Structure to design on (116 residues):
């Protein structure tokens, strides 16, 4: 879940400026902006880099738990699938060891996929 939260914060921080630009264009009733490049120029000139991140903390309050839950659920789903495959085959699919065991793991996964 922590990894999901971190991914959400990083992803949100990267895409937030694009969302800011989009929102300013959508609210362009007065004709203040002529296009995307104009929004970028004017926002940077008036507010600097911070202008592209206005409202980010409020968005992070929602994104962080949402992404944590999504990734946590996805990981749990994969874990359940692997454990079910292990019990059905009577073989260990997930190994803690490194080295040659990864080859065995991939081979077992490929066989299980081709069997279905």
């Amino acid at each position: 879940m922590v990894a999901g939260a971190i991914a959400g914060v990083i992803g949100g921080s990267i895409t937030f400026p694009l969302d800011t630009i989009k929102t300013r264009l959508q609210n362009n009733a007065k004709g203040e902006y002529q296009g995307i490049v104009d929004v970028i120029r004017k926002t940077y000139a008036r507010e600097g880099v911070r202008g592209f991140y206005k409202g980010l903390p409020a968005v992070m309050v929602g994104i962080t738990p949402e992404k944590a839950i999504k990734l946590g659920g996805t990981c749990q789903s994969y874990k359940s699938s692997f454990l079910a495959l292990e019990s059905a085959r009577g073989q260990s699919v997930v190994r803690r060891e490194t080295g040659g065991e990864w080859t065995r793991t991939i081979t077992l996964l490929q066989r299980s996929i081709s069997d279905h």
Notes: The two ends are 31 Å apart (CA to CA). Residues 56-89 form the longest helix (34 residues).
